[in-house]
Amino acid sequence: MESNKQHFRHILLFYYRKGKNAVQARKKLTDVYGEDVLTVRQCQNWFAKFRSGNFDVEDAPRSGRPVEADKDTIKALVDANRRITTREIGERLNLSNSTVYDHLKGLGLTSKLDIWVPHVLTERNLCRRVDVCVVFHQDNARPHTSLVTRQKLLQLEWDTMPHPPYSPDLAPSDYYLFRSLQNFLDGKIFTSNEEVKNHPDQFFASKDQKFYERGIMLLPERWQKVLDQNGQYII
């Protein structure tokens, strides 16, 4: 009986290396040996073990207590299906939910929105999450469209938001930042070049992060106004 088990497992390993999946490999077996040879779940468990890099087809030795699940096997199941539940893993490996959870925790995994993800993100993961949230917006001034600028944006892998020509009313720098600067400088009289340089510095130093955020957040409202006015200026 034991030799038959190993024979069937060798066949599963053969079809795994041929690129078949567990269901396809089981069909090959049942076509020859009948439906009772192995269950689909048993075949899936062996394929998960193979995917983890473990190609040993012999049963692990038993010591009178339940055999602990191989973490590599659990990891292979999760890698194959990030939405797999602890109950499904437990049913496949004959383990309790708490045991499966402990193994997943030991693998550094946690469930977010029912998807298994790393509990602690690497520095690279963190940077990629931030990068994907960045969309760079600028107008069509010549320095912004120069080759050097475009090459730098490609290097940073930033997505850029297209800006329509002749549209200062849709550029936060024009409709918000420079207008605020103009109001700040309005009525001031300068007696030297040094004063001319210092006042803009004072303006920018006086503004906190919320000021700049507001200018950006006004942009969707202005887009909507342009749509409502069929593309006409909204200045």
UniProtKB/TrEMBL annotation:
Q: Which Pfam families match?
A: HTH_24, HTH_48
**Which keywords are on file for this protein?**
Methyltransferase, Transferase
Q: Name the Gene3D superfamilies for this protein.
A: 1.10.10.1450, Ribonuclease H-like superfamily/Ribonuclease H, Winged helix-like DNA-binding domain superfamily/Winged helix DNA-binding domain
Example GO molecular function term?
A: DNA topoisomerase binding
Question: Where would one find the signal peptide in this protein?
Answer: none
Q: Which GO terms describe its biological process?
A: DNA double-strand break processing; DNA integration; double-strand break repair via nonhomologous end joining; methylation; mitotic DNA integrity checkpoint signaling; replication fork processing
InterPro entries documented for this protein: Mos1_HTH, RNaseH_sf, Transposase-MT_Hybrid, WH-like_DNA-bd_sf
A GO-annotated cellular component:
nucleus
Query: Superkingdom of this entry's organism?
Result: Eukaryota
Q: Which species does the entry assign this protein to?
A: Dufourea novaeangliae
What region holds the Mos1 transposase HTH domain?
A: 5-54
What is this organism's lineage? Eukaryota, Metazoa, Ecdysozoa, Arthropoda, Hexapoda
Q: What is this protein called?
A: Histone-lysine N-methyltransferase SETMAR
Query: Transferase as a keyword?
Result: yes
